[in-house]
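User: quick one - fold this with flavin-adenine dinucleotide bound?
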Amino acid sequence: KLENATAKAELGRASWKLLHTMMGRFPEKPSADESLALKTYIQLFARLYPCGECASHFQKLIKKYPPQTSGRNAAAGWACFVHNEVNKRLKKKEFDCNNIGDFYDCGCGDEDKKGSK
Ligand code: FAD
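Assistant: Sure. Structure tokens for the protein plus flavin-adenine dinucleotide:
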């Protein structure tokens, strides 16, 4: 089947949005089990990502920069960093990772003890 750049980009935006929003809700002080769950999720995400070319690049990227899952800030910072690595490869603008804090709002309406996102 022919490449459809519009669909590929749409999938990318949706996927990044989910990934960054998930990081913003990851516990500040996760248990070992929660940290392992996030690490495993990211590894499987990289393996199963539907665009094969993207998946194979991203797998190399996370080998070089292993997922940081010791807490929310580390995880959000890591995801922002690897997204920027993908941005660089695709010749896109770099995102300022200092602004990541309030950018991804879950909209869930349930309590997040600290931060109320
Ligand atoms: P996106 O990169 O999708 O970003 C969406 C929004 O997120 C931006 O508008 C901005 O507000 C914000 N943002 C930007 N950078 C960051 C950051 N560093 N941290 C947090 N938020 C940020 N496409 C390809 O053509 N080839 C590939 O090999 C490829 N690999 C990919 C691998 C993965 C794992 C994913 C999830 C996507 C991949 N994509 C790939 C898709 C590509 O990254 C973009 O999603 C797509 O091109 C749409 O780009 P965009 O300019 O709309 O912004």
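One thing worth noting: Residues 82 and 103 are 17 Å apart (CA to CA).
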